[in-house]
Amino acid sequence: MSEPAASTTAVARPAKRLSASRERTILRAVYEILAESGYQGLHHEAVATRARTSKATLYRHWPTKAELVTTAISFRPAEDLRVPDTGTLRGDLLAYLQLLAEWMSGEPGAVISGLFVTMRNDAELAALLRPLLIPAVPPVRAVCERAERRGELALDQDVRFIDELCAPALFMRHALLGQPLDAEFVEYLVDDVAMPLLTRAT
After folding, report:
1. What are the residue ranges spanned by the domains of the chain?
2. pTM for this structure?
3. Has domain 20-74 been given CATH number 1.10.10.60?
C-alpha cells in the first residue's frame, strides 16, 4: 500500500516580532517620508532604503501601504490637545484653538492634512485612520462641559459644529491661503464665530 503523498501546501509562519528599536527606526522613516513626499510618494522600497531594512521585512509586518502608514501615525506620541482650565469659556476656547493652530502649523499637521485628502479616495486608509483621528470625547466638548458647570453655557446642542467650522477655517488659512495662524485670527474665530454660536440661546 503506497503512502499518501506529502502535502505541498506551505504553512505560513507568523512574522517574527521586530525589536522595539528596529520598529521605531522603520516607523520614523515612514513618518519622515510622509512629511517630505506625502502618501503618494511613500513606497515600501523607499522606507526599506531609509530604514536600512528589507522590503520583505516590511511586507511581512505591513502588507499594505495603508497599514504601514496607520501604524506610523499611531506610533507617534499623541498631540496633547487637552485644554487647560482658564476659568472662562472664552479663555478655554482661545487656548484650545491656539493649540490646534500650533499643531496644524507644525509637522504633524502637515502630515495629517495630506492624509485627509488621500482618505477621500482610499477606503482602506480611511477605515484604518478615522478611529485614530477622531477622539471619543472631542476637546471642544470638554471645554463646553466645563462652561456648563460654571453656569456660562446651557449645553443643549451638539457642539461638534465648533470643530467643524473652526478647524477647516484654520486649515484653509494655513494650507490654501498661506497665511499665518496668529493670535489675531484665533481671537476672530472665538469672538466672531464660536462664542456667538454657543451663547446665542443662553
Report:
1. 20-74, 89-199
2. 0.72
3. yes
